[in-house]
Amino acid sequence: MLTKTNAQIILINLPYLGASNVVPFPFNNALDMRTRQFNKIILEVGQGGGLGGRVKIIDLYSPMCQPFLVDSKYYASDHFHPSDEGYLLWGKIINAD
Hints:
Elements: E1 9-12, H1 27-47, E2 55-58, H2 61-70, H3 84-95
Parallel strand pairs: 1-2
InterPro entries: SGNH_hydro_sf
Protein name: SGNH hydrolase-type esterase domain-containing protein
């Protein structure tokens, strides 16, 4: 399909996942470090995929850090997945462009 169309590919990196009020130290730092490592790989794949600029990378990590650090309301009760408010914020960021 990619070779038959000019479809744009949307690639979204991993959001911030390590708020200390939800994930205890030192696990919050380890989780954040792994998230940053994965996001670096996602960026490299998106930029080097040989798709002629058809990949649009949306940064979900950077704009999610502050809200998720400050307010645990963005986390669901499992302390990992976003809450309804967290997913709403994701949607706003993803659809901003």
